Amino acid sequence: MEIQNVKKLVVKYNGTIVGYLAELEDNKIGFQYDDEWVKTGFSISPFSLPLSNKVYINEKLTFNGLYGVFQDSLPDGWGELLLNRMLSKKGINPNKISPLTKLTFVSGNGLGGLSYEPCQTQEESEIDFDLDEIAKEAQQVLKDESIDIDLDKIYNLGGSSGGARPKAHIKIDKDYWIVKFPCIIDPKNIEEQEYKANTLAKECGINVNEFRLFKSKICSGYFGAKRFDRKDDKRVHMISLSSLLETTHRIPNLDYMHLFQVIQNICVDKNDIIEAYKRMCFNVLYGNKDDHGKNFSFLYDEDKKGYILSPSYDLTKTPNKLEHEMTVNGNANPTKEDLLNVGKQLKLSNKLCNEIVDEILDVINYN
């Protein structure tokens, strides 16, 4: 298939036109909501793209002219590697392709609720899969030994993924799942470690989406989590904390207070503050230092007509990281005192904060 250089895109949400992206002069990118969406829709990025008829142009170069909400749609880490390999195999330099053209490669497996037309990726509704076989092929890709594998199939399974570890987006019965596979440098039981972290978080009363350890004949299993950006075969709009604030997650520049401030500004369920406080305490006390701004997201709830904090994800212990990606009370190696101080700033009762910390410590220490 010949790759087309695209200068204009239609942005859709479950088949409804949200707006339009277009390449302007000086390589700038403009976005404008569709008139009907302004009347009946919602803001897809509350701080940067409030509902109006104006043309929005992101003057920042953080995402090559895109707003963060569209950057969230693009593959990152493993998915970006797959996209680059697929394009290179077709004789195309990935670095020479515009951001709009890259968005045309976001398949139906793309993260979040937004889709883009035209689409230059083959849509496959059902793919036969063998997790052990995918794991082997993922290792070949990581080692750059992917000559004999079907890159198009591997891309369709995981090309919209983020994060460093290989992933596959699969459908089991009527449910959509993301299944992870070990990286070359990962310990052999990395999947069990993530399963344990999610189990402990759930025991701490944290909102963890359904997860499981898929069986394997060649290892102890593969960690899988049910997708919360899909519901009843429909997409759910999702935006990460980093993208809401138009900043990259690759540079540690956020504090947990940024997360709380966003919740206070856009979330319709104010209990999300307590939920986020629990997650902060769990990450600190359990040792999950990979707590950057793309590992916290918000979903648009059509019933509540507003944003809610998504279920937690990417929970694991990171003993080799020296500091937390997000600081707590300005501290990259926070203490219990920092956790309680944040609670005080949020006007949460000292009794509640101590109960949360003690419960998490009890669960972690017992296991």
How would you describe the overall organization of this protein?
By secondary structure, the protein is an alpha+beta fold. It has 12 helices and 16 strands. It folds into 3 domains: 8-117, no CATH class; 131-230, Phosphorylase Kinase, domain 1 (2-Layer Sandwich); 237-366. The chain has a 5-stranded antiparallel sheet. The protein has a 4-stranded antiparallel sheet with strand order 6-7-9-8. It has a 3-stranded antiparallel sheet with strand order 12-14-15. Strand 1 (8-13) and strand 2 (16-23) form a beta hairpin. Helix 3 packs antiparallel against helix 6 and helix 11 runs antiparallel to helix 12. The N and C termini lie far apart (53 Å).
As a percent range, the share of helical residues equals 25-40%
Question: Shape, please?
Answer: globular
Unreliable runs: none
Q: How would you describe the oligomerization state of the chains in this entry? A: single chain
The overall pLDDT average reads 90
User: What is the overall number of helices?
Assistant: 12
- Strands, total number: 16
Q: Kindly give the count of domains.
A: 3
Which structural category fits the helices and strands? alpha+beta
